[in-house]
Amino acid sequence: MKEYKNEQEFLKDYDASIFEKPSVTTDIVVFSVSESKEDNYRKLTSKKISVLLVKRDTFPFKDKWCLPGGFIKMDETTDESSKRILEHETNIKELYLEQLYTFSDLNRDPRTRVLSVSYVALVDQSKYSEISEKARWFDLYVDINENTYSFTLCSKEDKLTFVLEKQEDKFITIKNNDLAFDHPEVIGLGLQRIKNKIEYTDIAFSLMPKYFTLGELQQVYEVILGKKLLDPAFRRIISHKVKKTNKVKTGVGHRPSVLYQFKK
Predict the structure, then answer these.
(1) How far apart are CA 104 and CA 73, in angstroms?
(2) Which of 52, 100, 193, 235 is the most core-located residue (most Cβ within 10 A)?
(3) Which residues contact 41 (CB under 8 A, 6 or more apart)?
(4) Beta bridge pairs of residue 163
């Protein structure tokens, strides 16, 4: 074996082709909270958690729904790639993304060996109303039976289903005919991440408009956590995170409600 005097000399002779190279992609799971109109105009508008999907127009998985994603270029970081891909595929930009997990199962992509660095984000859907034609928001419903998670994703035109099994710190796909790649597992892990973080961080406020009622904020917490919260306990928990304004919300069929805003 040749001995080198310094690193520059070593790198000059170095042949990177001796190693196999997997491809690397980024996949982005974007969650929001959508509103559902109530028949009783005196009730608060109910809220549902939503996830953003795009329809594939090429093989593999042509015409299947998937998360926004794509291959990383040689001259960009995974952070830069995820933002570029998200804007290209959905028309959403200037969005804070948090790295979620690296998915590396050997057969996750039928084309070749592909690793995926996934990202997760929470957004106020009303700020991104003009998404691209191939992107669509799907309302997300989860039925949990011990370690089995049955997901249903619904838009006006489509209904998608998949079943995951929780195994320690990850999910395994048990049934999936509707989503491309291993994206059910990305969605499952992303949803778990935001549930874990909502109680000790301020991520819920990225879903809120500038001014909101405490009832609206509580609904966002409840729909993400998947459980009902007691009003007095919730207000104690978030009291140091919000500040009262001199504005009120009117015209919603009940007594005007005081509006609050996030205390940064």
Answers:
(1) 18
(2) 52
(3) 252, 253
(4) 150, 175
Residue ranges of domains in the chain, CATH in brackets? 23-198 (3.90.79.10), 204-262 (1.10.10.10)
SS3 (DSSP) at 209: coil
Closest CA to 49 of 196, 152, 131: 152
Residue 242: per-residue pLDDT: 95
pLDDT under 70: residue ranges of the chain: 36-45, 251-255
Task: Supply the pLDDT for residue 127.
Answer: 80
For residue 212, give Cα distances in angstroms to 114, 217, 230. 43, 7, 19
Residue type, 5: K
What is the structure's pLDDT at 251?
59
Helix and strand numbers, DSSP H then E, in the chain: 5, 12
26 near 70, Cβ under 8 Å?
yes
Per the CB < 8 A criterion, the answer to whether 70 and 25 are in contact is: yes
Pairing of strands 257-262, 65-66: unpaired
Three-state secondary structure call for residue 52? strand
* 219: its two tokens: 């609904």
Cβ partners under 8 Å of residue 44, min gap 6: 38, 215, 216, 219, 252
In the chain, where does DSSP find H-type helix? 7-13, 78-90, 183-198, 214-225, 231-238
User: Which amino acid is residue 147, in one-letter code?
Assistant: N
* Gap between the Cα atoms of 140 and 261, Å rounded: 27
Residue 185: both structure tokens together: 């597992």
C-alpha span between 176 and 153 (Å, rounded): 12
* DSSP strand pairing (114-123 vs 65-66): unpaired
Which conformational region is residue 207 in: left (phi greater than 0), alpha (psi within -120 to 50 degrees), or beta? alpha
